[in-house]
Amino acid sequence: MSRFRNSACTSIMVGKGASLDGSTFISRNEDRVVAIEPKRFLVQPAVHDRHETYVSAYNKLTVPLPEDGMRYTATPSVDQSAGPNEEDGFNSANVGESATESVYANDRVLAYDPFVKNGLAEDSMTTLVLPYIHSAREGVERLGKLVAKYGSAEGNGVQFNDQDEVWYMEIATGHHWVAVRIPDNCYAVAANQIAIEQIDFNDPDNYMWSDGIQEFVDAHQLNPDNNQWNFRHIFGTNTKLDHHYNTPRVWFAQRYLSPVAADQTPESPDMPFIRKPERKIAVEDIQYLLKSHFNETKYDPLGDGSEHDKKVYRPIALSRTAQSHILQMRNNVKPEQAAIQWVEFGLPSFCAYTPFFANADDTDVSYRKFPAKMKLKNAYWLNEALAMVVESHYSEFYDQDETFQKDLNEWARRKIVAVDAKASQLSGTKLTTYLTGQNHKIAKHYNKKTKRLLFDLMTQGTEFSKLTFKMDPNL
Hints:
Blueprint: E1 10-14, E2 24-31, E3 42-44, E4 53-55, E5 62-64, E6 72-74, E7 88-90, E8 96-102, H1 107-112, H2 122-129, H3 136-150, E9 156-161, E10 166-171, E11 177-181, E12 187-190, E13 207-209, H4 213-219, H5 231-235, H6 240-257, E14 274-275, H7 283-291, H8 307-311, E15 321-329, E16 339-345, E17 354-357, H9 365-368, H10 379-392, H11 394-423, H12 428-461
Helix pairs in contact: 10-11, 10-12, 11-12
């Protein structure tokens, strides 16, 4: 098992008919075991006529690479000793991938199809899939073929999107998986628990599955239901850990996007995976949820509930979130400028999501290079520092931090509109060069505003030191 197997993420997917502007969205908080797990944001170049074999630094998975691969963006770990862990990005065919959401199967199914030690794991999934796919559906197909050939080393949920579709795939055992197309007018939330429910084996347009999965379930008498084929019931778990670690996050997200779901409780075991929102979903709504910590409920660790209530459930945002991302594929501009990757380093609750156009051939040095020691010129360290300072005096700094995030979201929307107008007049390498340059300007603006807030709060924070003393004049 990877040294990251106790990590845990939260994923949110939105179909184009459920979003405010017709975009498809996939998104996730990449949570790790430790509080500091440095990341970078890179553009990996296209390759042609290559003759190489990929070998995982984590578990020695060995896979011959295709001769040709597309350019793609990625957020790899700085420490490559456990594999690249490229996690998420868009390729030049406008396909997004986010890998992975750790999921856990029950011991019954794993008894008959155990994990493969040197099979496909999280560290390799983006590297071996994203450069080679031309649609979200093709992403599921390629990943499924890799699992069939090499086996899976762990349970994982993987998201794919393009301009038309959003797909979510859950790999539960060494060789068995299912995938579902998120309906255009719906959203879905996954939180470290096998989530996919009924599979319609007569509808291959909206469902995909591993070869032989029905026969596997029948042969070992694994289906507990009499009248349905429910992947969650067959392969998933329903434990105390689920009720306190996993389902509360789904509850909070559905409570926000579908208030009719308010009659659910944080421990409800059968919350639907796919739901219709009660209003159109904006990128800011996804940000809010990925930043959330049971806001305005008694379960908020930063709130005023009892000590028991504040610690009973695991929130979506955590101090050990290595990075958070929202992959937005738009439908209101030409395809060459449609993909935007919103990147967030540091604890999401206190930091801003920076929008980058995916059609670029480089990233800003503040995101691309990682110094050996902490430097505020680096976006990862800058945002980690801001998060620590804000949380240290949360009640005093909350309003200023919220204003900072709100102002940057407003600026981002205006900037995207301005860049779109110019980009619509360009094509080919000129367009890519222009968008790359604009990404540098966006990074510079965000870094500048983040530093300004950080320095302001640090200055104000000196007033809150407990090591102050004023002489009582009556002494």
